[in-house]
Amino acid sequence: MHLHIEGSLEPELMFDLAERNGVSLVYDSVEAVRAAYAFDDLQAFLDLYYQGMAVLRTVDDFDDLAMAYLRRAHAEGVVHVELSFDPQAHLLRGVSLATQIEGLRRAMRRAARELDLSTALIMSFLRDRPAAEAMQVLEQANSHLELIDAVGLDSAERGNPPGQFAEVFARARDLGLARVAHAGEEGPASYISEALDSLGVGRIDHGVCCLEDPALVARLREAQIPLTVCPLSNVRLKVVEAMSDHPLPALLDAGLKLTVNSDDPAYFGGGVLDNYLACHEAFGWDEAVFKGLARNAIEVAYMDDARRLELL
Ligand code: ES4
Ligand code: ZN
What is stated as this protein's family in its record (predicted)? Predict the structure, then answer.
């Protein structure tokens, strides 16, 4: 449920697409790209993430990117994928919204047919760009609304509070779209409350900083607001020093509705299964804990009720 499809771009495909589109990369090998993936914080990652995705130009590129990821997810036992994408990052490079959505949706349709994977599409706004730009993108998306399931909010968190996007999210609600937002990844716990209050989100992406505020933890527990936690991402971006310091066990003890997700699998050390395995190794969780996490995801995912019943 928390996957940036552009963050699933493996260096091998990055080179293939660069060649196909005549885009030059600053790296001369796949190994050099991987070696550059040592981040001090979210911004250091975002700089490489936006640079890497510049190879995406055509419908086929978005189709190939998504299909490669959906095949890998299927191979590791994933049965439902919610792909989030960052339309502004591509619009700013002259790639139309129609191109992006057509490519992603083509892969999603094929995955349903060939892999029995259900999927949903989340259009995320960049919080470090003006809210007026997000509103323009939402208006542009009006002609593709049946192809979008939810809107999200991502990119650089600190100094970019959710409240700035209140109007955009109110408009998304009026258009019948579900809403999620990154909050409490690097930013303060107050951004989590703000995302709930001013954006009306139904889920919080990350949310790990909620433990700073006991009243907020109580609220999240009482309302059973889902948190899409990404442990390997938090280690790679130095939100925590190591898996052994990760707050997941404390969040679980607090009775929160948790799911474990991969965020940007090509950049942070793997997919959902790798994140599950890292939790098993660090926390010694048994099968019952993982079944509970997977069940939480199925209960709150954007899928139709027939699919939910089939999976539960
Ligand atoms: C992201 Cl890890 C993370 N945080 C915020 N925005 C993002 N976009 C892609 N990955
Ligand atoms: Zn994320």
Answer: Belongs to the metallo-dependent hydrolases superfamily. Adenosine and AMP deaminases family. Adenine deaminase type 2 subfamily.
